[in-house]
Amino acid sequence: MPAALRHDTPAVTRLRDRWRGWRDALLASASFQRWAAAFPLTRPIARRRAAELFDLCAGFVYSQTLAACVQLDLFETLRGGPCNVAALASRAAISPAAMMSLCEAASALQLLERRGAAHYGLGPLGAALLGNPGIAAMVRHHAALYADLGDPLALLRGQDRARRLAHYWPYALDRSGATLTRDDVAPYTALMAASQPMIADVVLAAYPLSRHRCLLDVGGGDGSFLAAAARAAPQLQLKLFDLPEVAAIAQERLTKAGLADRVTISPGSFYDDPLPTGADVISLIRVVHDHDDDAVARLLAKVRAALPDHGVLLLGEPMREASGGSDGVSAYFEIYLRAMGQGRPRSAARLRELLNIAGFSQVRVLRTRIPMIASVIVANS
Predict the structure, then answer these.
(1) pTM listed for this prediction
(2) Which helix (H) or strand (E) holds 182?
């Protein structure tokens, strides 16, 4: 049973806490660490723990190595085949020695591979990134997050007034969207559009829309999810609701995609405005985790009011504890959303609670192909 759904008795909790206290004291002992590293049966575990700690310490270097490769378009450059360091260095306007260091670091991370003397080609992770352009877009926008994390304590104490990531997502500062211009919303809308195809694949594989007649996508961005839904379900009528300047971008994109006769665009803010009615399924794709509990409660109540009897809410986003074991998704979003200034990652159990409070029934968590990208909850009105 997932930890979030388990209800332990006080006695079980005390016993578990005592065991964890004993474990922590043992693992913190330098003499035990030396013994575990030497003893044949525990040596593999000790080495793995040491490697995990090193990865935590070196994680920023790993991410910046990836960022440098993305900013220099190294993966795209190597799409056609291996290249020598001198040519890569000349193209990037950095020294051959610096390029060699970058290529060696990227090779150690499986982003690149050595292909003979001073030649490098794509590694398995670099090649996979080419197939998911949304990842490169996310890496580029992380510059704002890294700037906010330059002093993590200032961020956690609320002393960092710049909040670069909040300005990247300007609706965190202006929830109504009344003051936001096209230039304000264009960067994050483009990022969401670049990463939406892999999200849409995961969500629509878990919950096909073929039995529905009309889909309203709330916070639908430039319409990328609606376009994917339209391809998957040709009979589906489409509606989109988002901030005015974002809705204008969606209108242009969906018209160019030949969907003008199937889509209705409604500008507005779910903080201030009711949601459009008429859809028998409403989607919230990567929307809920961006907002605090009170805002989510109001949003879910509005979704419930906009749905007919037996309508369906389709909720898709990364969720806490979805993958089991080490929860890197939660670690990432806890700090990311802190920098953004609102929202938090939630477990399926917490989302179920919020959905039940809003009046939804038959709340189901669906299995997805890649939970790290998105988990899916379906709830009936």
Answers:
(1) 0.83
(2) helix 182-206
